[in-house]
Design brief:
Blueprint: H1 23-26, E1 45-53, H2 58-67, E2 72-77, H3 85-92, E3 96-101, H4 106-109, H5 113-131, E4 137-138, H6 148-152, H7 156-166, E5 170-171, H8 186-193, E6 202-203, H9 207-222, E7 226-227, E8 247-249, E9 252-254, E10 269-271
Parallel strand pairs: 1-2, 1-6, 1-7, 2-3, 4-5
Antiparallel strand pairs: 1-10, 8-9
Helix pairs in contact: 8-9
Length: 280
Amino acid sequence: MEQEPQPAANAANPNEPADLIWRDTDFAVDPSFHSWSNKDNGHKTVYITVDDGPSRLTEQYLDLFDTYNVKATFFVTGQNPEYYYLIQEACNRGHTIGLHSMSHDYGQIYQSEEAFFKDLDQIGQVVKEQIGYVPCFIRFPGGSSNTQAEGYSPGLMPKLVNSVQARGYQYYDWSLASGDGEDRSTSEIVSMSTQPGEPGYDPATKQTTLEALPKVIEHYQAAGYTFEALDRTSWVCHHEVYRTEPESTNEGTEGEEYDETYDETYEESYTDETSEEEYA
């Protein structure tokens, strides 16, 4: 009796659970894949995403998610090499790994399209060394709606949102920010993350966010939601991309000034169902 062939073991991630090896090919960058979802799946689902790690708090996030049987997505940076091993650990615990930025330096990565992809390729290689492949899931520093890029390279973001997808990536924004990118108390983060509509934002480097998460998770679980990690079937959340509107003058055209105060450098979560009746 012939046995079905088994997936090959991942040399870069030998401790990867056998039931998760399928992700090695399914989640890898693939320019030929075009079947992304722009509709919700009809289920009460929360996608928690955690940016800017791995950090000294990442293991605490992982333990907390285990306690509540929550799966999340980690959009990672290259800023803390001493914690790179936690990328593999997060993957092995069933979470999705996405790319955020190697440097998270806006002035560097948004100088040009070439500079952006140089940075993205660098963090992609860091992740590949940990889990064996370059994942297709990415998050732009500041999100696709950031206005800082316009100040460094006018017209860059409209180009990038198309070029990343042409190269086989998919970018993910968020549907509600809880404000934890600023100095917020634990109670403020809980309040902003449990408003009717959508849950909040969760940074990898903030102790207050870690303290707020149990109440946020309990709130949505009590309302019948499940927490899932992103995959290729998940709803794709895109912001409206900032575009400079030309102004006609006698001396030619000028671009509008960009707002330097708009900065989303933290992480968040979002749902693919927003019915307010679930929050009665």
